[in-house]
């Protein structure tokens, strides 16, 4: 599939392009990627990654994860941002097998949406100001990455059904994610049978909870994260196109590029 980009060591790298929005625009191909940990890149995988032209990497992991597992290799032309959006670590391998697994994960996503306000806002600012291809990732490219992808696609106007389907594509990587875990933890029992899974129900639960608490995903982003219309316009201009080209003029992009943090400072609804 065009959406999936094959790597030897990465299992969950894909393009967010091609999704159609409610107003008929289309997310541009080759501009916005999501992935599992880029610390695994080396050799031919590194060359393949560089060929995509990525110039901005957002690493959503904890600093201690990066210290233990490494980060994307350094490149002089690539900006790197560590924005740890999760604040309450937990071990998915140890989740109680008797717990409702999808409700459990949706509740963890809700915690990220509550605790990670500053980092999520910064993540959206970086994405909105990137002139060249960008990738965001966590460890498996599933939970933290899936949450950010849902926010981004929602801001672009992609329908919820497509957002949920995009999240569930991680199911294609589950077997390899489990194999990686077993290789890294010889002799340890994988207690939770849902490890590495990403069924659509998790994201539907999370989006429903967000809408119930804030009115809509967009309301959460504007009211809770403090994002304003200028940032949303920059999103649309950079990542959407119609039959005439980008949906926002270059003046919108130039204004936001000049000061990508202005959206947060001028927000009419500060974070609560």
Provide an overview of this structure.
This protein has 272 residues and is an alpha/beta fold. Helix content is 46%, strand content 9%. The chain contains twelve helices and eight strands. It has helices at residues 43-50, 63-69, 101-115, 117-129, 144-156, 160-168, 174-184, 200-214, 217-224, 229-239, 250-258, 262-266, and strands at 14-15, 26-27, 32-35, 56-59, 79-82, 134-137, 240-242, 245-246. The strands form two sheets. A five-stranded mixed beta sheet has the order 1-3-6-4-5, covered by helices on one side. It has a three-stranded antiparallel beta sheet with strand order 2-7-8. Helix 3 packs across helix 8 and helix 8 (200-214) packs across helix 9. It is globular, with a radius of gyration of 18 Å. The N and C termini lie far apart (42 Å).
Distance between the termini: 42 Å
Strand content: 5-15%
Number of strands: 8
Helix and strand string, N-terminal first?
Answer: EEEHEHEHHEHHHHHHEEHH
The number of distinct helices, counting runs of at least 4 residues, comes to 12
Any key phrases for this structure?
272 residues, alpha/beta, five-stranded mixed sheet, 12 helices, 9% strand, globular
Helix and strand arrangement:
Layout: E1 14-15, E2 26-27, E3 32-35, H1 43-50, E4 56-59, H2 63-69, E5 79-82, H3 101-115, H4 117-129, E6 134-137, H5 144-156, H6 160-168, H7 174-184, H8 200-214, H9 217-224, H10 229-239, E7 240-242, E8 245-246, H11 250-258, H12 262-266
Helix pairs in contact: 3-8, 4-10, 5-6, 6-8, 8-9, 10-11
């Amino acid at each position: 599939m065009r959406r999936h980009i094959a790597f030897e060591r990465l299992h969950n790298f894909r393009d967010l392009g091609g999704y159609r929005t409610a107003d008929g625009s289309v997310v541009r191909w080759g501009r916005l990627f999501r992935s599992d940990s880029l610390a695994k890149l080396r050799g031919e995988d590194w060359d393949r990654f560089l060929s995509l032209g990525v110039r901005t990497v957002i690493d959503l992991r904890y600093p201690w994860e990066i210290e233990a597992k490494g980060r994307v290799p350094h490149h002089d032309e690539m900006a790197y941002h560590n924005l740890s959006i999760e604040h309450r670590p937990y071990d998915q391998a140890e989740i109680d097998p008797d717990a409702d697994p999808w409700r459990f994960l949706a509740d963890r996503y809700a915690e990220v949406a509550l605790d990670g306000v500053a980092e999520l806002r910064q993540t959206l600012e970086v994405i909105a100001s990137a002139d060249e291809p960008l990738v965001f990732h966590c460890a498996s490219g599933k939970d933290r990455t899936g949450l950010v992808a849902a926010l981004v696609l929602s801001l672009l106007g992609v329908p919820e059904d497509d957002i949920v389907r995009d999240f569930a594509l991680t199911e294609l990587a589950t077997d390899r994610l489990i194999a990686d875990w077993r290789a890294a933890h010889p002799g340890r029992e994988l207690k939770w049978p849902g490890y590495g899974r990403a069924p659509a129900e998790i994201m539907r639960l999370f989006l429903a909870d967000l809408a119930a608490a804030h009115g809509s995903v967009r309301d959460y982003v504007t009211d809770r994260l403090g994002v304003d219309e200028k940032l949303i316009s920059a999103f649309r201009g950079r990542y959407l196109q119609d039959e005439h080209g980008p949906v926002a003029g270059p003046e919108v992009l130039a204004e936001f590029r000049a000061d990508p943090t202005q959206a947060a400072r001028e927000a009419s609804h500060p974070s609560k």
